[in-house]
């Protein structure tokens, strides 16, 4: 489940009704050097900006952030959004303060950003009540947008900025690449940059710089520990299928966190030091391609034992955040950003790509669900499936498929128009009313399935039921070559997981319910209009990938982990048994009313200690994201923890 309660998400701030009149005042020192300053009453923080007289791109800026100590970190957004613009984050560090340059490319902890540098200046300090950061920033006023074009601030006008602050401790205050957790509050204001311009900018900066190195953010650092650790198997599970031999040691460093495997399973860390690794795709030559959100796609040559022999960057494109697919012939690679999907000619042996082509545009720019999952069925090489989540916890408008949100669509790759398809208005539907169907997979009949992140913060007739309701879902969409206009319930119909939470009516697990039933639309309406899931999964687990094994006797699902539940849940890989029915179709073995269908395969030893709060740093927990089978039927899994993402290989022999 995902909502907008993240510093690293869009936060739907554009919906705020704010006056466009400047909300700043001018404060000058004795040398007549002036800052344009905004003070926020809610956070108790002040934000000052000083610019040079000439503000042609690129230009530097001085930022001043003053915040009370109760705000463990304070963030400033240079573009007014929490994704796709530089962020300056400040926190107390002893008697000084730390400046951290960040950039969020999706719903994740904003990553260290090497496109901007902060240089400490006089006035940076921490006292008994506040911390203050004063820094020259190079690279903060212009950046590459999510549409792959240069954007820069108009330094002569009024612009909109945003703030946020947190109250949980920063993991390592002395490090400018430290992880930090979810914000407590956020807001926006209009700032007069025209009054921030100074003719004496260069001389003032020179006289006020502190004698220290620049605070340049860097990418995550790889582990230098030269050994791998195999997880001990302790928990029984259903009988797994035989798979390729799992290497005993890949020399990839010790695991970042402790973990446990089900009986009969083995696991080895094969790679570390990655930046938010998400989806995995193996090519026809056995190389592993990995999407690293905010970085691009990396290419990993695999050795015969299942370890990584060598790695390189295949595509450097920071707008890519999750989706990847490969044509069945292995010659065309597909990947997606929040707003577009692209293709490249691909040479697996050389590990190279050709010229990029845009094949889909018009996907929603913003909202709380930013990933666009891609899939191609082996028997339909000309059809690309693209999943698009809602733009909020409850996206009312997405009840209509025409919005192009909370929907799965199919596009014919042999008929791509010039400039690409427009997502909302073209292609055909493979089902809609799925809140955020991040994970998609095909069974042995080439039928499409998906796993849905359901809603958060739920009430039934005003009574809080969110802790154990609604259930996540496994959906069956079927044959993608034929339009599927079925509605799967969102944004009004949801499934029960814990019936005892409902005091007004007796329910079973998997029953439909609405939050506020009335005479026009109620629980019964869902039965009349919505297509039921094949199975309900534990609430707040956040399933984001699924893969069937070779004969579709099991579906494996990554549970990315909760933020909207205490104690936390998820943070594991589970196995759901399937069977082939008399009509030749595949279906879960256990019924919709089951609460035991998902068996733990790879999991954290104490999930209640995992820090949820969306995809921010996990205190003591790995965080499963993508899955991929190699040719030996070994199952690879990414863990997209914020500072040292990992890849694991799992199997039974």
Automatic annotation (TrEMBL):
InterPro entries: 6-blade_b-propeller_TolB-like, Beta-prop_PDH, Cellobiose_DH-like_cyt, Quinoprot_gluc/sorb_DH_b-prop
Domain Pyrroloquinoline quinone-dependent pyranose dehydrogenase beta-propeller as annotated: residue spans: 260-651
Pfam families from the UniProt entry: CDH-cyt, TrAA12
Superkingdom to which the source organism belongs: Eukaryota
Domain Cellobiose dehydrogenase-like cytochrome: 30-202
Signal sequence bounds: 1-19
Keywords tagged on the record: Signal
PANTHER family for the chain: CELLOBIOSE DEHYDROGENASE CYTOCHROME DOMAIN-CONTAINING PROTEIN, DEHYDROGENASE, PUTATIVE (AFU_ORTHOLOGUE AFUA_8G05805)-RELATED
Record's protein name: Cellobiose dehydrogenase cytochrome domain-containing protein
Species in which this protein is naturally found: Lojkania enalia
């Amino acid at each position: 489940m995902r909502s907008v309660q993240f510093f690293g998400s869009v936060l739907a701030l554009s919906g705020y009704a704010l006056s466009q009149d400047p909300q700043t005042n001018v404060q000058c020192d004795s040398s007549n050097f002036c800052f344009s300053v905004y003070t926020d009453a809610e956070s108790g923080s002040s934000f000052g900006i000083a610019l040079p007289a000439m503000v042609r791109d690129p230009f530097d800026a001085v930022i001043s952030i003053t915040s009370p100590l109760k705000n463990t970190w304070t963030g400033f957004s240079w573009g007014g959004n929490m994704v796709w613009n530089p962020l300056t984050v400040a926190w107390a560090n002893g008697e000084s303060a730390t400046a951290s340059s960040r950039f969020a490319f999706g719903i994740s902890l904003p990553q260290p950003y090497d496109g901007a540098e902060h240089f400490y200046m006089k006035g940076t300090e921490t006292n008994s009540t506040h911390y203050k950061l004063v820094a020259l920033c190079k690279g903060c006023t212009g950046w590459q947008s999510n549409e792959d074009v240069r954007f820069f601030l108009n330094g002569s006008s009024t612009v909109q900025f945003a703030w946020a602050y947190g109250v949980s401790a920063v993991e390592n205050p002395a490090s400018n690449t430290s992880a930090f957790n979810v914000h407590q509050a956020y807001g926006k204001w209009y700032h007069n940059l025209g009054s921030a311009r100074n003719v004496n900018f260069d001389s003032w900066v020179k006289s006020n710089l502190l004698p220290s190195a620049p605070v340049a953010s860097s990418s995550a650092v790889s582990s230098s520990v030269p050994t791998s650790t195999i997880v001990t198997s302790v928990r029984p599970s259903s009988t797994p299928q035989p798979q390729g031999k799992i290497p005993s040691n890949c020399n990839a460093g010790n695991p970042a966190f402790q973990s446990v495997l089900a009986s009969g399973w083995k696991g080895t860390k094969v790679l570390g030091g990655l930046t938010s690794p998400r989806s995995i795709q193996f090519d026809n030559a056995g190389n592993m391609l990995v999407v690293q959100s905010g970085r691009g796609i990396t290419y990993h040559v695999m050795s015969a034992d299942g370890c990584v022999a060598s790695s390189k960057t295949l595509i450097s494109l920071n707008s890519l955040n999750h989706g990847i697919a490969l044509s069945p012939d292995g010659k065309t690679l597909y990947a997606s950003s929040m707003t577009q999907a692209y293709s490249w000619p691909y040479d697996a042996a050389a590990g190279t790509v050709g010229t990029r082509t845009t094949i889909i545009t018009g996907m929603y720019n913003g909202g709380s669900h930013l990933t666009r999952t891609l899939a191609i069925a082996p028997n339909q090489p000309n059809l690309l499936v693209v999943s698009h989540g809602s733009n909020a916890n409850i996206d009312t408008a997405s009840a209509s498929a025409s919005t192009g949100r909370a929907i799965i669509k199919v596009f014919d790759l042999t008929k791509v128009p010039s400039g690409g398809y427009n997502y909302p208005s073209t292609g055909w539907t493979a089902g809609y009313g799925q809140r955020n169907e991040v994970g998609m997979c095909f069974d042995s009949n080439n039928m499409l399935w998906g796993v849905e992140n359901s809603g958060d913060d739920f009430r039934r007739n005003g009574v809080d039921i969110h802790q154990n309701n609604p259930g996540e879902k496994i959906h069956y969409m079927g044959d993608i070559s034929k339009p599927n206009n079925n509605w799967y319930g969102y944004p009004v119909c949801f499934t029960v997981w814990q019936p005892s939470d409902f005091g007004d009516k007796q329910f079973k697990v998997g029953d439909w319910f609405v939050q506020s039933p009335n005479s026009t639309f109620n629980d019964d309406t869902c039965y009349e209009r919505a297509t039921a899931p094949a199975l309900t999964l534990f609430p707040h687990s956040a399933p984001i990938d699924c893969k069937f094994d070779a004969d579709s006797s099991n579906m494996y699902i990554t549970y990315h982990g909760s933020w909207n539940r205490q104690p936390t849940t998820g943070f594991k890989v589970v196995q759901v048994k399937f069977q082939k029915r008399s009509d030749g179709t595949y279906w879960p073995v256990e019924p919709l009313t089951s609460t035991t269908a998902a068996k733990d395969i790879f999991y954290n030893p104490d999930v209640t200690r995992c820090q949820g709060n969306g995809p921010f740093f996990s205190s003591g927990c790995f965080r499963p994201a993508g899955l991929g089978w190699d040719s030996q039927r070994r199952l690879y899994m990414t863990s997209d923890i914020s500072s040292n993402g990992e890849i694991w290989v799992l199997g039974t022999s």
